[in-house]
Design goal:
The protein has helices spanning about 1-20, 50-55, 70-80, 105-110, 185-195, 230-250, 290-295, 320-330, 345-350, 420-435; strands spanning about 25-30, 60, 65, 100, 115-120, 140-145, 155, 160-165, 170-175, 205-210, 260-265, 300, 310, 315, 360-365, 365-375, 375-380, 400-405, 450. The chain is of the alpha/beta class. It folds into two domains: about 20-360, Alkaline Phosphatase, subunit A (3-Layer(aba) Sandwich), CATH 3.40.720.10; about 360-435, Arylsulfatase, C-terminal domain (2-Layer Sandwich), CATH 3.30.1120. Strands 1, 2, 5, 6, 7, 8, 9, 10, 11, 12 and 13 form an eleven-stranded mixed β-sheet that branches. Strands 15-16-17-18 form a four-stranded antiparallel β-sheet, with helices on one face. The protein has a two-stranded parallel ribbon with strand order 3-14.
């Protein structure tokens, strides 16, 4: 009888206990996916039924920002800081001595301190030296390709161009290009294994996919299935993968206590043409500070917490994920070291429609190129259309250009002469942040990490000795 009474008491208290549980957090981070690449944001050439359902059950964030290129974007998500604040300004190639400084506090470290199991599955790309790998940056485990999948080196053992696949900090396989066709499937299997194995404790899963960065290798089951070539096929495989993750959470009765964020690291690499994604209605692509380079398709899903079929246009971004996750886990982010992100949980939970930041800064390399407040975006420097394409005639000069993104999302009409007071206000904001973390003489930039004796992760043909990446001039060159 005592046991029955105890079981009855536990069953009666379980809803309240579950309601106070720390939520699991899953971040699905796609590589080079544009604003117009999935159904909820207007795609028609490829079908994304699982993401369509995710959006119907959750919230679209239509002004969600990343960074122009991949290493910067990943550093921002992990630390809650603009890349320039932590001295990550461009793309790290294999064997580069620099990486995300281990002294920075990542989202994984903050959540692990709060009792979370942490796992990174996929593309890392903030340094491949031992001190910079995920297991040294707050993750209990890692499985993935540590940088972009086009950064192959020729193995001195096999003579083939390969990319390394790591388990924790060890290379376990050398993948040829064709073997990359199973990478989405393998990442998905690892993600499901991690979720299933940690269903009885709070967990943080960071799933930064290799796809859809070129070279594009959709899985065999997806080849030729879309109406948009192999890039559309790979997007459809990512849709399948996301559906498998969400289905696993449903099957394990974890959906009601799991926040899932689906987003991208930057806009589409437009110079890849048929292998490029789409910016949809936005101007520009990867490597630019036009909206198409940094505004990314984003969905937030948390059944019972996030209202279904909702859409929010308030300014938010990857830098906000760290403080948001920590807040939801019951923790607080200390005032030092300074971060740029803010807790957007009130936005996600429908308690407000206003952005806690209200301002978005657009850096390329160390240089600020634009600033947005509300609907107004002020460009203060020439802007390339995308990586590998120079500025068009209307974006070459240094004179400030002002765009109203509510009235014209495509950034074509410069209305600076009609609103001098707004130009002045945004110029003041730009000058302040540039003095703090931008340019060549900032007052508050922290240094990147540096390995003294950098080396490749596997025996391979050497190229020129790597040096610290320079601020990009609109063109990211794979190492």
């Amino acid at each position: 009888m005592k046991l029955l009474r105890l079981l009855f008491l536990i069953s009666a208290l379980w809803p309240a206990m579950a309601a106070g549980a720390k939520p699991n957090v899953v971040v699905i981070f796609i590589d080079d996916m544009g604003y117009g690449d999935i159904g909820p944001f207007g795609a028609t050439k490829q079908k994304t039924p699982r993401l369509d359902r995710m959006a119907a059950e959750g919230m679209k964030l239509t002004s969600f920002y990343a960074a122009p290129v991949c290493s910067v974007s990943r550093a921002q998500l992990l630390t809650g800081c603009y890349g320039v604040r932590i001295d990550v300004s461009a793309v790290y190639g294999p064997g580069n001595p620099h990486g995300l400084n281990p002294s920075e506090h990542t989202i994984a470290e903050r959540l692990r301190e709060l009792g979370y199991a942490t796992m990174c599955i996929g593309k890392w790309h903030v340094g491949d030296q031992p001190a910079f790998l995920p297991t040294k940056q707050g993750f209990d485990g890692y499985f993935g390709i540590p940088y972009s999948n086009d950064m192959q080196r020729k193995s001195t053992v096999t003579g083939e161009k390969v990319t390394p696949l790591l388990r924790d900090d060890k290379v376990v396989e050398l993948l040829t290009d064709e073997q990359q066709s199973r990478i989405v499937e393998r990442y998905t299997e690892e993600a499901i294994r991690f979720i299933t194995g940690h269903q009885d404790q709070p967990f943080f899963l960071y799933l930064p996919h290799t796809a859809i960065h070129t070279p594009i290798y959709p899985g065999e089951k997806f080849r030729g299935k879309s109406s948009n070539g192999r890039v559309g096929d790979w997007i459809e495989e990512l849709d399948w993968s996301t559906g498998r993750v969400l289905d696993t959470l449903r099957e394990l009765k974890l959906a009601g206590n799991t926040l899932v964020i689906f987003t991208s690291d930057n806009g589409p690499w437009l110079v890849k043409e048929a292998d490029s994604g789409s910016s949809g209605p936005l101007r520009g692509g990867k490597g630019s500070t036009w909206e198409g380079g940094v505004r990314v398709p984003t969905i937030a899903w948390w059944p019972g917490k996030i209202a279904p079929n909702t859409s929010v246009g308030a300014i938010a971004g990857t830098i906000d994920l760290l403080p948001t996750a920590v807040s939801l886990a019951g923790g607080t982010v200390p005032p030092e070291p300074v971060i740029d992100g803010r807790d957007i949980s009130p936005l996600l939970l429908g308690k407000t429609t206003d952005s806690p930041r209200g301002i978005q800064y657009y850096f390329l390399g160390y240089n600020l190129q634009a600033v947005r407040k509300g609907p107004w975006k002020l460009a203060i420097a020439p802007q390339n259309e995308t990586m590998g394409r120079p500025p068009l005639s209307d974006a070459k000069g240094d004179a400030p250009r002002l765009y109203n993104l509510d009235q014209e999302i495509g950034e074509k009409t410069n209305v600076a002469s009609d609103h001098p007071e707004i130009v002045k206000e945004l110029t003041t904001l730009a000058e302040k942040i540039s003095a703090e973390i931008g340019g060549s003489d900032p007052s508050a930039r922290r240094r990147a990490g540096k390995a003294e004796l950098p080396s490749l992760l596997y025996p391979a043909e050497q190229r020129e000795s790597p040096s610290k990446p320079k601020p990009p001039k609109g063109h990211e060159k794979p190492e």
